[in-house]
Amino acid sequence: MKRIIMGLWIALTLVVIGFGYVRLAPDNPSDWHLPPEVQRNSDLDGGVKRRIETDALGLQRLDAIIRATPRTEVLAGSVPEGMITYVTRSCVFGFPDYTTVYRNGDVLEIYGRLRFGRSDFGVNRARVERWLQTFQP
Predict the structure, then answer these.
(1) Total-model pTM
(2) Would 59 be classed as within a structural domain?
(3) Which domain of life is it from (predicted)?
(4) Which segment, 1-15, 23-37, 94-108, is predicted with the most confidence on average?
(5) Domain residue limits at 36
(6) Any idea what the CATH number is for the domain that residue 99 is in?
(7) Cβ partners under 8 Å of residue 1, min gap 6
C-alpha cells in the first residue's frame, strides 16, 4: 500500500512539474516571430494557415480584434513593422499557441500553431476563423 501511495505522489509531482513547465517556459521571439510564407489556405494537425486580401488598414483592424481575445498578448512585432506574433494561452492549463500575422502587400498571411504536442484539436483553426469572421464587413 505504501508503494502505491508513493507512486501516486511521484506521478502527481511529475504532472505538476510538467504543467509548470508549460506555463512558465520562456517564449523566445526568434523561434516564433518569422514570416509565415503562406502560399494557400490550409488546415494542419497542429495549426492553420490563411491568406486574406485586404486594404492598407487590414493589419491594424485585425490587430485590434486579436488583442481583444482573452489570454492573448503580443510576443513580438507591431503594425508599423508589418508583422506581429501573438501568444494565446488555454484557460485551464495555459498551453501556448502562437499566431503570426504578416502583411505582404495587399494580403495578410496568418499562421496559427501550437507549441506543445502534435494536434491542437482544431483550436487554432477555430480561433483564426472567429477572428476572420469578425474582421470581414
Answers:
(1) 0.87
(2) yes
(3) Bacteria
(4) 94-108
(5) 28-135
(6) 3.30.310
(7) none
Q: Compute and round to an integer the Cα radius of gyration of the chain.
A: 18
Is residue 61 domain-resident? Answer: yes
**What is the side-by-side strand order in the sheet with 83-89?**
42-44, 47-53, 107-114, 96-104, 83-89, 72-78
One-letter identity of residue 98: Y
Question: What's the number of domains the chain is made of?
Answer: 1
Q: Give the sign of the dihedral formed by CA 96, CA 24, CA 64, CA 81.
A: negative
- Return the C-alpha cell found at 52: 486574406
46 within 8 A of 38, measured Cβ to Cβ: no
Cell of 68: 481583444
- Please name the amino acid found at residue 47: G
16 lies in some domain? no
Residue 74 domain-assigned? yes
